[in-house]
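Data card: per-record layout.
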Amino acid sequence: MIHVVSKDNIARAPRMTVEGWSSAIPSNTQKFRVIRWAKSGAKKVLSYMCILLLVVDVISNNWEVIDYIANAKHLLTPLLDVNSPTDMLAQYSFPEMASPLRASKVGRFMINSSFASIQARDSSTFMLGTTTHDIVGKANDICGQLVDKYPVTDLNATTMQLGSVVDSITFIRGNVLSHWFGDSKTAPRAMTSMNETQLRAMGYAPGRLSTDLRLTTPVAIPPPGQNTTASISMYRYFMKGFCSGCVPGTELGLDTCVIEYSLNAETKSLDVYSSKAIMGGTHELGFIFLRRGGPILALYTRFFTLLLLFGVYAASQKTVQWVDFVQQTVPQRLVRLIAPPLYRQPCSILGLSDICFNSDVFVVLYSLAVLGDEEISMVYSRVLNRWYVNSSFNLWIELRLMSMTVRWLWLNCFLLKLAKWICHFVSMAQYTGANRVMGWLNFSSVSWMYLSVCVLFERNDFIEFGNSVNVDLHSTTQNLDATYVLLFESWYVRGLPALAVMVVGNLAVLLAVDHVVNRKWWVAMAHNSLGRQLIYNSTSILADFRGTVFEKPGYAGTCVKMKIRAWCTLRWFLSSHLTCLGLAEQPSVMRAMRGTATATTHKSKSPKRHGRDDMSSTDDTDESHHVKPIPAVHPHDEEDDDGTSQCETTPTSMELHVVVQDREGHIHVIDGEKREMQALAVEVKILRDVYLNLG
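The structure for this 695-residue chain is written out next.
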């Protein structure tokens, strides 16, 4: 939020006489206080929730920390003394049709890659785990794959270990858009017995390579013909690749299965005819991912941006000194992003939401971190969500999933800022406000930004729905060596266009609703120079700022009164954390300001005002007959922008100033005579705690 004047008051407040307004104050004050408290409280809760999710994301979804804790390494137990797939065949008994020997070349490559990662256990991989998920239904019961016939090489042995491999390629038809607007969801579906040619003829395309390896703890061999029930531990190594020849990621798992089996002496096989998970039991989940540069850079970038957020927020709670940004060097500008020169006087015009969602520096850095980490986080969150939705409620997992989804909120911000920059770049507009499209690329408050999260929370379900029409082609049905998966047709990438449409459509709808619902407020903001700088002449995407609206006779625009301390801090944020586009102010605005300056000059010559400082005070009686105040909604009912009581401040003058930019995008504050506000005069006003009137 650069926080704000109430939209309700600007849009709906009646134009009352002084007497009529005075009589209305007692009846409306309580109502306004309730509205202020409710809006302020809701925004604070959302802001703190956002910060909480940021912290949770940096801590709990930190792959380096999770890998260092090493909770997933006990899931590697069956393979710790196995050096190759050949050794695995010697230790475990595999069914004839579910053996590594029947896997495709890509399937064997994925097994070898996973073996190499497990044996190395070095800095080339992340080993992430574990989360525990309750098994409360069939959706989380994966023990059925053990049902098969296992050859017994030694009938005199007392125990044996079971293994099973399922090698397949997942074929997918359609996406979210074709499911909604086409027939890919309702058309006849493929059968599991179909080959590649038949699947492609029905519109399916290969989207994922998978090799599902299961290994068990030793099983007691019963006497021949005796039905036996046993409880065993089953380890899962589910290797998945999203392009042929790519290094796969491995999903790790551990379940307890109850099997029913018997020994067939004639066929020399152990026949498992039932295998089920224990209802009420748990499934342990872990991952092995290749350690690439993108996720590592993203981890450090997210940690740095979190420190940046707290540093900038701490600086924004003081009054920033009035410095000349034109004369600053690049190193000075970088230092003053976080550590500007400060006065001791407090100021609260900027909140956490302003910095999180409106600072170019924070938005760009965090968006890059999000994109760099999507390689792991998209797979991690999808698999974690798949197990969690069929399990019981877990607050910690819920927060982790939310934090990974909320990341995309900064992609929304980045897209809006990028759209504003492109719109300015291709436009021929020479004056602020001439490019009307820019006006639609802003939110009136951070609350609308938070609403976009509701759609982002459905990201995993959105991807699942797009890939819901799928079938597995197994290596036992057809030789898979000549079947390949293209990256752009893979499980996640194929859904990105529809996901992008969802994100952009969500933003467009929210922006349109915001501008329609608050259309009068937007008109009022466009008639104020500070509002125009935010909306049309910078990369700000939040057009909200904190101040009090009032009317000035002879001036048709919107006048806003704010503390000079608040303006100094806001000026620093505009100059340091936003990109100013350098458009000139409309000539008509300057002519109107010149007219009000002339009227103010004539009024200052009256005997009643002789000898008084027209920049810091005014005659209360005279002002009450010319200013029609419109009440503003502030977060604190009794306090102003800097946390000081309003009754302790000096009254404002009637002189107006406008906020303008030069061609280089430097912010200036000038009066009707085009005299720029200077640092020395500002320091005096800060000490006197006066107001600044912006027209």
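Known properties of this structure: The chain has a mean pLDDT of 83. Residues 71-291 form one domain.

See the next section for split statistics.
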